[in-house]
Design a protein that fits this description.
The structure is a single chain. This protein has two domains: 59 residues, no CATH class; 79 residues, lambda repressor-like DNA-binding domains (434 Repressor (Amino-terminal Domain)). It is built from nine helices and no strands.
Length: 161
């Protein structure tokens, strides 16, 4: 009985992900509890269920924010004349999915993978991740400016701005 009610509620709400299933199971529990305790649906209960439904629908319709890490991997790959599949094979991946995620900026590669990409594309790592490198240089410069003058050292690895 409860399973039938759970599937009915999930169809009614249009379940999309695991978080949605948690919400549906809570709502189904509430409906089952009210049914077995013989509490009749009063207008207050219906308002509560309707409010939960509106909150749920607004939650699933919110756009998900994915941080983008801008890089020049795609440009470097095109300049080197390689395809995603060949880069994936060089790095030991079976699919092109990680390469695509690195290029779009949805995933940052590990340090060793980033160095491998720099070798594959024959491009310095600072050039591949130019915005990240500039952000790091700015953060270090800001921290150095707050330090006493005798401990502030010129960074020989930073590119001239």
């Amino acid at each position: 009985m409860a399973l039938r009610r759970l599937s009915f509620v999930s169809i009614l709400l249009g379940v999309q992900d695991s978080c949605s299933w948690r919400f549906v199971s809570i709502l189904s529990f509430l409906i089952t509890f009210l049914y077995f305790t013989r509490v009749r649906f009063s207008p207050n209960i219906l308002v509560l269920v309707f409010t939960l439904w509106i909150l749920y629908r607004s939650y699933i319709s919110m756009p998900k924010q994915h941080p983008k890490n801008f890089n020049k991997l795609w440009i470097a790959r095109k300049k080197s004349g390689l395809g995603q599949k060949s880069v994936a094979r060089l790095l030991g991946y079976k699919s092109i999915s990680p390469i695509s995620e690195y290029e779009t900026g949805t995933v940052l590669p590990s340090l060793s993978t980033a160095f491998k990409l720099a070798v594959v594309y024959n491009t310095p790592l600072a050039d591949l991740y130019d915005s990240l490198h500039k952000q790091s240089v700015d953060e270090i410069a800001s921290a150095q400016s707050k330090m006493p003058a005798r401990t502030s050292v010129q960074n020989r690895y930073s590119k001239p701005l």
